[in-house]
Specification:
The protein is of the alpha/beta class. The protein has helices spanning about 45-50, 70-80, 90-105, 140-150, 170-180, and strands at about 15-25, 25-30, 60-65, 85-90, 110-115, 125-130, 150-165, 180-190, 190-195. The protein has one domain: Vaccinia Virus protein VP39 (Rossmann fold, 3-Layer(aba) Sandwich), CATH 3.40.50.150. It has 5 helices and 9 strands.
């Protein structure tokens, strides 16, 4: 594969398809396309994160590397009085996520193109979610963790999913450097879901 899904402007020919998934007990429909992550269906890691994550009903949520939108769209469904911001560097994924939010009648989510947190509004979030782009490299993944620590509100939580063989132990160690509390919340088929909580007495400038 000559082109990674974190390419800003995928050059691959369009090959749209419609997939249907049951997530958190609800049916969702997604349009996917060539040049985006896991276009054939929601991958196991993403599904494990979705089924494990805890989203308060009024949460302000940020989905980093949203792809065509399953994590953020489900989060928005779980937070009917909250607000979800979904970001991805991949312009094709961003457009698909916008379409999929409309397709699933999600009115409390916005999608924007952003290289990591570059275009994220200067506000804080109660929950940050990510299935990080492992192929972008360890430095990029750890940069997501560092920036998430800055954008989380005091007491806010970062949820990530990562495969053990693709850096889970070093990811856990990095999270422990940045956050007051880090817990493994789920594990299956080599995947780990970690929840890192920002200390309640931290402020966003720390």
């Amino acid at each position: 594969m000559s082109e990674h899904y974190f390419t800003r402007k995928p050059q691959s020919e369009h090959e749209e398809r419609i997939i249907r998934e049951t997530l958190r007990g609800r049916e969702f429909t997604f349009v996917t396309d060539a040049g985006v992550f896991s276009r054939g269906g929601v991958d196991f890691g993403t599904r494990l994160l979705i089924e494990t994550m805890d989203i308060p009903p009024a949460a302000r949520v940020l989905d980093v590397g949203c792809g065509y939108g399953p994590i953020g769209i489900v989060a928005a469904a779980l937070a009917p009085s909250g607000r979800v911001t979904m970001i991805d560097v991949n312009a094709r994924a961003v457009e698909l996520a916008r379409r999929n939010a409309q397709l699933n009648r999600i009115g409390n989510a916005e999608v924007m193109e952003s290289d990591l947190f570059a275009n994220v509004p200067a506000e804080t979030y109660d929950v940050i979610l990510t299935n990080p782009p492992i192929r972008a490299g360890k430095q990029t993944v750890h940069q997501i963790f560092e920036q998430a620590a800055h954008f989380l509100a005091p007491g806010g939580r970062l949820w990530i999913v990562i495969r053990k063989q693709q850096g889970a132990p070093s990811a856990f160690a990095k999270l422990e450097q940045l956050f007051g509390s880090v817990r493994e919340m789920a594990k299956a088929k080599g995947y780990r879901v970690y929840r890192a909580e920002k200390d309640a007495d931290d402020d966003a400038s720390s």
